[in-house]
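Now read this:
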Amino acid sequence: MSQNPDTLRGARAELIAATRRGDAWAKPFPTVGGGAHPASVLVLFGRLDSIAAGTDEATVAADLDVLLQRRAATLSSHPGQVSFPGGRAEDTDADAVATALREAEEETGLDPDGVEVLATLPELPLAASNHVVTPVLGWWRTPSRVAAVDHAETVEVFRVPVAQLLDPANRHTSTIHRMGRTWKGPAFDIDGTIVWGFTAMVLDALFDAAGWTLPWDPSIERAIDV
C-alpha cells in the first residue's frame, strides 16, 4: 500500500483522493444499450470492530472493512451474487446519494445518519441488468447494526475486512463462458465466498486508485458457474 505522508493522512483521505483519479475508472465495463435505468450503490467503509476508534488520520486501509451483501438466489437479476447495498432510483429520490442511502437502509437496516458521504463516483454501466449505476462512496462515521431485512431480496449482510480483500492469496481472475464468448474480470475469494462481476470491478478500481493494491497474479483464473 502506498502512502505519501506529506500529502495524505489516513485511509479516508486516500479514498477521497482516489475519487479524483478519473483514469482509474476508465476500465472496460461492458456497455449498456439505450433506455438504461439509473441506479446507485453504497460503497461503505468503516473501522473494524476490533480497531479502537481513533482519528481519521491514524486509520489506515488495514483498519477498515466494507459492507457487502448476498442477493437471494431467486432474484431474476444477479441471483446469489455478492453486491453492494443499492438499487434502482425512484422518482422520490432527490439524487444518486438519496437512492443509495434509501436502498441500503431498506436492505440492511443501517442508519443513514451514521454515514458520511465522501463522494459520488462516475456512472458505470451494468450491462447484465441494463442499469447505469452511480457508486456512492461512504465513511461509516457511526456504525449501526445491519442484517438482511427482506430475505426475498437479500439473504446475508456482512462486513469484509479490507486487508482480506487486498491479500494477494485471495485474488484471482474470474472467467465466465456464455454464448461462445469468455468474459474475464477481477475476483476476490473471501473464505469460499466469491466476489466477482460489477462489485469486484468497482473494488478493484477503487483499490488501484487509492494506492492500496498489493501485487497479485491475474493469470490465476477460475470459472464462474452462472
